[in-house]
Design a protein that fits this description.
binds adenosine-5'-diphosphate; Rossmann fold; binds magnesium ion; alpha/beta; single chain; 251 residues
C-alpha cells in the first residue's frame, strides 16, 4: 500500500522543496515507484525538473483536469504533479467554499495512490487550506528544519497547527530532518540547535542530517536530482542515506 508523506515547515528557505525532490529520487533509486506532488505556489520543485505545468495541481483541485492528464514522468520510477504557480491561489479560493474542503487533494489522489509506493507532497510555508489538504491526504508528516534560530522558533507554531489536524485524522509524526547543516558556520549555532532538536524525543529526529553542499544547488541548473547530477557528492550521499532511513522508518 502506498505511503503518503507531507513534507512541511512554516519557515521558507529551509530546504523543504530540495528535500522533497531529492528524497523522492533517493526512494525511487531503491526500486520504489514515487509520485511528487507540488502544492506550493512557488512551484520550485516543478521548475527544478523543468516540467510543463499547463495542466497542474490547481486544475486537479478544482476538477478542471483529471489526474491522468496532469501527471508527468520525471524519470523511470519518479512522477510529478506540477504546481500551478499563482493559479494555486485561485484554486484555494474556489475550494474554500466547497464541502469537505480539507479533503479535496485526498479524494483526488485516492484512486491513483495504489500505483505508487510513496507519494511525497511539497507544501508552501503558509499554513492555509492548501497545507490542510496536504496534511489531510497524508499518512505521515515530516518537518524540514534548518538549524537556525528563526527556523527553530517556527517549529512550535507548526507543531500546534499539526496537532489539531492529527487529532482529527490518522496523521502520524514522521520525524524532523535537519537540512543545510554546516558545523563550521555561526560559531557552533548549527550544532547547538541540532542537539536541542535531537534531545526532544517528540521530534523523532532522523539520524541523517543533510549537510550544506554546493552540488545540491547546482543540480537545479541541469534539471536533475543531486543523486543523478553528482552521485559522489555529500548531498547525494546524505539524501540516499535519508531515503534508506525513511524506508526503514515507514515500512
Ligand atoms: N543541503 C543544501 N546545501 C546548500 N544549499 C541548499 C541545501 N538545501 C537547500 N539549499 C538551497 O537553499 C535554498 C532554499 O531551499 P528550498 O528547498 O527552496 O527551501 P524551501 O522549499 O524550504 O523554501 C535554495 O536555493 C536551495 O538550493
Ligand atoms: Mg519550497
Amino acid at each position: 500500500m502506498s505511503k503518503i508523506v507531507c513534507i512541511i515547515s512554516s519557515k521558507s528557505g529551509v530546504g523543504r522543496t530540495t528535500t522533497t525532490l531529492n528524497l523522492g529520487a533517493a526512494i525511487s533509486k531503491q526500486g520504489n515507484k514515487v509520485l511528487l506532488v507540488d502544492m506550493c505556489w512557488e512551484a520550485n520543485m516543478t521548475l527544478h525538473f523543468n516540467i510543463d505545468s499547463s495542466t497542474n495541481t490547481a486544475d486537479l483541485l478544482t476538477k478542471r483536469s483529471r489526474f491522468e492528464d496532469i501527471v508527468t514522468t520525471v524519470k523511470d520510477g519518479l512522477d510529478i504533479l506540477p504546481s500551478g504557480g499563482s493559479e494555486m491561489f485561485n484554486a484555494l479560493e474556489l475550494i474554500s467554499n466547497g464541502k469537505n474542503r480539507e479533503h479535496v487533494l485526498n479524494y483526488a489522489l485516492k484512486a491513483h495512490a495504489r500505483c505508487y509506493d510513496y507519494i511525497l507532497i511539497n507544501t508552501s510555508p503558509i499554513l492555509n487550506l492548501l497545507a490542510d489538504n496536504a496534511l489531510y491526504a497524508a499518512d505521515y508528516y515530516m518537518i524540514v528544519q534548518q538549524p537556525e534560530v528563526y527556523a527553530y522558533k517556527s517549529m512550535d507554531r507548526l507543531n500546534k497547527y499539526i496537532k489539531f489536524i492529527s487529532s482529527e485524522t490518522g496523521l502520524k509524526n514522521g520525524g524532523v530532518v535537519i537540512t543545510r547543516f554546516n558545523e563550521k558556520q555561526c560559531s557552533n549555532l548549527h550544532r547547538h540547535i541540532y542537539e536541542v532538536v535531537r534531545d526532544d524525543p517528540s521530534n523523532k529526529i532522523f539520524s541523517t542530517t543533510i549537510r550544506t553542499n554546493i552540488e545540491v544547488v547546482e543540480a537545479a541548473t541541469c534539471n536533475l536530482s543531486v543523486i543523478d547530477y553528482a552521485p559522489a557528492s555529500t548531498g547525494a550521499k546524505d539524501y540516499m542515506q535519508l531515503g534508506l532511513e525513511v524506508l526503514d522508518r515507514f515500512k
